[in-house]
Amino acid sequence: MNTSLNATRRSTELAEATDGRVFDLLVVGLGVTGAGVALDAASRGLSVVAVDAHDLAFGTSRWSSKLVHGGLRYLAKGQVNVARQSANERGILMTTTAPHLVHALPMLLPLTPLVSPAAAALARAGFAAGDSLRAAAGTSRDILPAPRKLSVTETVRMARGVRRQKLRGALLSWDGQLEDDARLVVALARTAAGLGSSVLTRCRVTSLHGDGADIRDELTGSASSIKARMVINASGVWAGQLVPDITLRPSRGTHLVLRAETLGNPSVALTAPVPDAGNRFVFALPQSDGLIYVGLTDEATDGPIPDVPQPTEGEIGFLLDVINGVLEQPVGTDDIVGAYAGLRPLLESDGKSADISREHAVLTSPDSVVTIVGGKLTTYRKMAEDAVDAVLALRGVSSPPCRTATLPLIGAGPTGDLPTGIPERLVRRYGVEAGLLAADSTLLDPISDAVLVTPAELRWGVEHEGALDVDDLLDRRTRIGLVPADRAVAVPYAEAALA
């Protein structure tokens, strides 16, 4: 099973994909949903070619909060189906498909004057309901501990930066956190490739129809076509550009990037309620690489869809104002070392974007292109299953049932047998493949004191993960690019890996 993606394989498989042969399925889009679709279909024995105009995880999938939500927020909104699906899919990720990439994250709601006793009681009831979702999904307490009330002393010990004036303690709950959302997409794509799927980045679809697509190789400019018996459009916020009957209402979610020491190196995520907004919060989410992501916003957007959305000054100010409500020492714009924004592919609906259901939809065009839109990162696997089931039923094609709920992704597996001395961060990011990355000890020193990524990871990205240029390496195979100053330091190392 060859799971390696690289320039040589891309060239070979692109020539094969455009030589006139007919695939069972063409997938357009290689974000988390499209990569999930490719894996689902390939695991059922279908011949699959998956294309993207840019790179793996180029769009929305890399701009998330890196959380694998258990659905508590959706339960509070009455979206019971979404909440139940979220808890189920979180459990699958944490126990079976990607346990090396998903771990339990403690989340702290400080009981400051911003949280009234009545609001605190409501939050405790919500956390109890979320714990019931965990139990119903079959996720053990060994993986996600029970929520509980913390004393003031415990609260300050876990989050030294929390505001202490009139602090009444905190409520502690647990959810799932991704080591890296883009790495999940890479794992999905490589696992699909290992099962025979062709994974082709830099291939832009110029015309999509029910039996294939016209494409342009963005590296050479050459035009060609791909033939397929079935087609799934999983291009996210760009879905309506390929299937005009689809109308989306994208919502922008913005995050700030801080150094962890700015907030006292917390070991927990901090939760700050948005004043006068009911069930809305801003989170300060600690990352394993010494950063903290503060987010997120939920702003409806209009007009053309940009390749890389940009945060607005208003959103940055909003996030600072809300998170400062729970901090002893307020943070300012000078503390921000980076920022990013992503667009959610929500279906057109009445009301505010924050109130639109996160349920996904499977839509069929008049010429039999199946489009999957909506949803959320946590439920990508179920979205992919529904899309593949729909296109099979549409075309009257029989195949084995979905098996991705029990299919571990590349890197998953017991890591206890790995050689000693392998950096823990490599194990968290690459799982059982960490030993292969660490084979050359001369490549294991971090790039700098601030950038923990090693030259070994950059070389691995080129040889096995399909990285074709510096941007692929720094912005998606690693996340160095989230901090521009760190990115500048890493560019020569990326260039050396590509050379």
Model description:
- The chain is of the alpha+beta class.
- It contains 15 helices and 18 strands.
- The strands form two sheets. Strands 3, 4, 5, 6, 11, 12, 13, 14, 15 and 16 form a ten-stranded mixed β-sheet that branches. Strands 1, 2, 7, 8, 9, 10, 17 and 18 form an eight-stranded mixed β-sheet that branches.
- α13 crosses α15 (484-498).
- The longest helix is centred in the first third of the chain and has 21 residues, at 117-137.
- The chain is globular and about 70 Å long.
- It starts with 6 loop residues before the first helix and ends with a helix.
- The relative contact order is 0.17.
- The model is unreliable at 350-357 (pLDDT under 50).
Give a short synopsis of this structure.
The protein is of the alpha+beta class.
Q: Kindly estimate the percentage of residues that lie in beta strands according to DSSP.
A: 15-25%
Coarse shape: globular
Amount of helix: 25-40%
Tell me about the largest β-sheet. 10 strands, mixed
Distance between the termini: 27 Å
Rg, alpha carbons: 22 Å
Low-confidence stretches: 350-357
The average pLDDT score comes to: 94
Count the strands?
18
Question: Count of helical segments?
Answer: 15
* Helix/sheet category: alpha+beta
